[in-house]
Amino acid sequence: MSQLETPLFTGLLKHMKKNPVQFHIPGHKKGAGMDPEFRAFIGDNALAIDLINISPLDDLHHPKGMIKRAQELAAEAFGADYTFFSVQGTSGAIMTMVMSVAGPGDKIIVPRNVHKSVMSAIVFSGATPIFIHPEIDKELGISHGITPQAVEKALRQHPDAKGVLVINPTYFGIAGDLKKIVDIAHSYNVPVLVDEAHGVHIHFHEDLPLSAMQAGADMAATSVHKLGGSLTQSSILNVREGLVSAKHVQAVLSMLTTTSTSYLLLASLDVARKQLATKGRELIDKAIRLADWTRRQINEIPYLYCVGEEILGTEATYDYDPTKLIISVKELGLTGHDVEQWLREMHNIEVELSDLYNILCIITPGDTEREAGLLVEALRRLSKQFSHQAEKGVKPKVLLPDIPALALTPRDAFYAETEVVPFHESAGRIIAEFVMVYPPGIPIFIPGEIITEENLKYIETNLAAGLPVQGPEDDTLQTLRVIKEYKPIR
Ligand SMILES: Cc1ncc(COP(=O)(O)O)c(C=O)c1O
C-alpha cells in the first residue's frame, strides 16, 4: 500500500456511492431525519459518511478491513510498530497508555505538570504516582519538561516503576532530551510513555524536535487533530512492541472507547496521515518560515518578547518547536488574559491560550502571511496603547507556586469520605478534587495534596485575571472539597 492511498476514506466513499437503504443507526439516515437548518449547514456529504460499524465498514474495536489498513499506513508513516486510532482525543490515548502499564498499587513516574487525563487514569487504575518536578522558567512563568537526570534519580529510587511518562514537546513547544530519557528508562527495562499532544508534526520535519517514535519511546499519544489536520477529537496511539504488548494496549483502548465510533473522525485521521506523509515536510517547512518571520517582527515591538532559540541550552530546554509563538506580555503591565481579550475585542483575533504572563499563538500550514501580518500589526498597536504602563517600569513579579506535598494517593483521596470547607479555611487540609486552569489543563491541585496558602493565592490571582479555573464541584470556588477530619470527642 502506498501513503497516497486512503483505504478508510475511499472505502466510505464507495459505500456512500452505493447509496444503500439504511435500517441502522444513526437515525438521521444521511441527514433526512435531522433538523433541516443544521443539515443544510453541515452538508449532505458529511452526513452520508456519518456512519457506524456495520460490517462492510470494519470495526475500530476489532479491525480487520479498511480501518486495519488505515492504521497500518499510519504506523508506517509514524515509524511505529502499531498505530491505533482514537475517537476519544489524546485524553483517551493517554489514559490507555497509563492503564495498560500500571495497575492498583503500581508506581508510575510522571511530571507533576501533567494533563488532567494522566491524573484521571491514575485515579482509575489505582496506581501511585511518583512525581518529578518539572523545570520552572521563572522569567516566563511556565513549566518545561523533565530532565534526564531527574528521570535517572527517580528510577534509581524506584526501579520497580512500571512506566515513565514524558510530555514532549510541552504545550509551549519546548522539548527535553527525549532520546536520553528513553535510554535511561530502557536501561531499567521501564517503558516510556509520551504525551505527544502537541507534537504530531515533529515527526515530519528534521528541524523540529525528535518525535517519540524517533527517540525509541514505547508509546505515544499524539493529537492529530491539534496540529496534524484531522477533525477535533481524533488522535492516535503509536506503539513500539517489546516492553509493552500492542494487543494489551488495544484491549485497554477498546475498554475506554465508545462503541459508536465516528467515521467522520476516523476518515479525517486517514486523510491527515496521507497529507502528513506525502506533503508534510513541505507544509511544515512553510509554517516554520512563517513563524520565524512573525517572531522576528514581534521581537522588534517594544515591551514584547517572543521566545526563540535563545531559550535552548538546558537539559529541559534541549530543543523547541519554532511554530509555537510564546509571547511574553508582562513588560506591558498586562496579563496574558488581558491581551487575549484585547485582541478579541479590538482585532477579532483568537489566541491558542493565555496565562498570567504570556499568550501562545500557533502557526500551522493553515496560515499565510495575511494572518501573521494581522497578528503583528495588532501587537504593534497593543504595545503603543499600553506603553505608558510599561514606561512606569514596574517589573511584574512572576508567581509560580511550589508543588504541594502529596499526603494520600489520588485514588484514595478521590474515594475518601469528604466534606466541603470554605476556600479561605482550606489551607492545611487534604484536597479531594482537581483544580486546574484550562487551557492548558495542568492541575494546580490534584486529589491527595495538602492545600497551601501559596497555592490558594495562585488560584485567586488566576481568577482575578479572568483565567478559567476549573475542576471543583463548586465552580464559584467559594468552597473546596477536602478529606473529612474527625475531631477528638471531649
Ligand atoms: C499536554 C496535553 N496532553 C493531553 C491533552 C489532551 O488532548 P485532547 O484534548 O486531544 O484529549 C492536552 C490538551 O490540551 C494537552 O495540552
Structural write-up:
The chain is 37% helix and 15% strand. With 490 residues, it is an alpha+beta fold. The longest helix is centred in the middle third of the chain and has 36 residues, at 263-298. Helix 5 (89-101) crosses helix 10 (246-255). The strands form 7 sheets. Strands 1-10-9-8-6 form a 5-stranded mixed beta sheet, sandwiched between helices. Pyridoxal-5'-phosphate binds at residues 89-91, 94, 115, 117, 167, 171, 195, 197, 223, 235, 439-441.
- Describe the largest sheet: 5 strands, mixed
Shape: globular
* End-to-end separation: 77 Å
Q: List ligands, each type once.
A: pyridoxal-5'-phosphate
Radius of gyration: 24 Å
Q: Can you tell me the residue ranges where pLDDT is under 50 for at least 5 consecutive residues?
A: none
Strands of the biggest beta sheet: in what spatial order? 1-10-9-8-6
Q: Which structural class matches the secondary elements?
A: alpha+beta
How many strand segments? Answer: 20
What would the average pLDDT be, to the nearest integer? 95
In quaternary terms, these chains amount to single chain
Helix content: 25-40%
Strand content: 15-25%
How many helical stretches? 15
